[in-house]
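Schema walkthrough. Field components (list of strings):
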Amino acid sequence: MFKRVLIANRGEIAMRIIRALREMNIESVAVYSTADRDSLPAMTASKSICIGPARPAESYLDMDRIIDVAQQMHCDAIHPGYGFLSENAEFARKCEEHGICFIGPSWQLIERLGDKQSAKKLMLENGIPVVSGSKDIIRSDEEAKAAAEAIGYPVMIKATAGGGGKGMRIAENEAELLKELKAASAEAAAAFGNGDCYIEKYIEAPRHIEIQLLADNYGNAVHLGERNCSVQRHHQKLLEEAPAWGLSNELREEMGETAVRAAKAAGYNSVGTVEFIMDAAGHYYFMEMNTRIQVEHPVTELLTGIDLVREQILTAAGRELELKQEDITFTGNVIECRINAKGTGNVKVLHFPEGLGVRTESGLYEGCTITPYYDSMIAKIIVKDRTRMEAIRRMRRCLEELVISGVPTNIGELYMIMNHPEFVAGNYDTGFWEKHKAELAEIEL
Amino acid sequence: MDEKLSTKDSRAEYIGAMDKKLIRSLWDRFDKSDAVELVFETGEVKLSLKKAQSDREIIYVGGPGTALPAGCAAPFFTAEGMQQAGNAAAVTAYPNTAAYNEASAVSATATASAAATAAASSDADKSAAPAAGAETAGSKASASDNDAVYVRSPLPGTFYRASSPDAEPYVMLGKQVKKGDVIGIVESMKMMNEITSQEDGTVAEILAEDGVMVGFDEKLIRLES
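Field assembly_structure (string):
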């Protein structure tokens, strides 16, 4: 078992890892930038050391520096957290070269699954549906018709150089196809100087449903259920919940088994998440795979009672997975809200909600400073209750109780979501925030 | 003589010289308890029962009855961590560090002395002096930090006072230093980086220890003009 682990991260996830390590009698080494000198991880890790200035490139992203510190401090492993270097295959390989265990999948897996095309290829090889699309740029009307025919209407025409919604058109049938193709191409050519388009299946009312996986180094893998992450603002998750409303047990089992099958085929190890996009009829398609511990892992932890960070560390240390799929049970309903700072400041008053079924994760303390250099998420509130409605009520109470004064936050907006009839009904999709953003305009709590 | 309980042995009332009912009764009570080992000895017979523990528990929790290594009995808020946290006011405000560390020190010392392990002595020292750490943080902040001139490390690494183990240290207390003079070495990525002073002055304090890791921007020496 590891004796000392370096945490190449900061904030709430660094605290999560420090706590897990401490419970395992493993020493922790926190590396921090000058901006995080007064941070909770720096104060609570067994050892902590400043590795550079605030700029991530010169501190949290400086691979060679981090590995050098790990070696000089006699660390046998590095936990990369999420973000930063957690999915950097080069960093994982450098750790291996220096005889330090990278707590995550092998660098080859990160490379293979990080590349969207090769990941999709792996999924297809294992009978996992992928968002179907034309393989190449559409060069003629005939090609367009044939591709759309093969994919099945409705289709989405996407400009390859497109972005921000430009150069995207939907065609419901062949009649619309050629007209929309021309329009999309013209728009893209005008905006990006490149009118090349390809065609993809259009998923109506998509939901973002992801499956949590856990695997060891010996080919054993289990799934720990799904999370519904469809409440997103500009593709950034605002909250996550499990189980996903309306997902039948059969579908859950099928998706879980599917994800496990893909993981085993890839020879996956450590924790990971398979992201699917699901349409209103319950058809799901592989989107991408995240080869790291995720922000929303506490949702699954509360749902299953399994400590994912501990399991991740155990499997990294070479322990065989003791968990069997039949051991994993799901109870209750869990919701997580991400608290984001909307500006910098000093936290003058801090009060976290407490009580049965309430969990908080953050690096905050009264008097701490929120700096502009890093991700804006400063805390997570996770609640669990027996039913979904009870969990929603509990989250409302928690958001009412939560006090973070001195820094503007999105607590008000989250509270509005918790009270929005469409969210409460459960049948929302990734278009939810965009559709209702005016109604969700923040209130002062 | 050791006897292993045989549940399949229904032939005799006695196993060895022990009444089967007695063995069963001991077995049941042992099974329900937290104990991991039971040795029962009469004049003629010795019964020894042992529980197989979860592998996981042994490898990292240490199993019931095992003392923690002294290094992990250190307070949650470490003396070292508190000391380098510049925001002393915030640090003492949360949670109530002095009292907390004092209470932790008492329990930590008790645990440390109970542990039979030969853990690093530096960790044992730390767990005994966290209250001092909290005070040091305060006094460091109140000292005239702005007036003092420090030479700080431009990178994290191991600090050395001399160019080699048998060489003379670059500086001693009281030495006159000119801008550009080498005052020590920080080893990083197998390279020895010479650290030069940016100011003229006299070495008033040597803050970094020879052979010990220093962080980015950490104070190495203090100069007085």
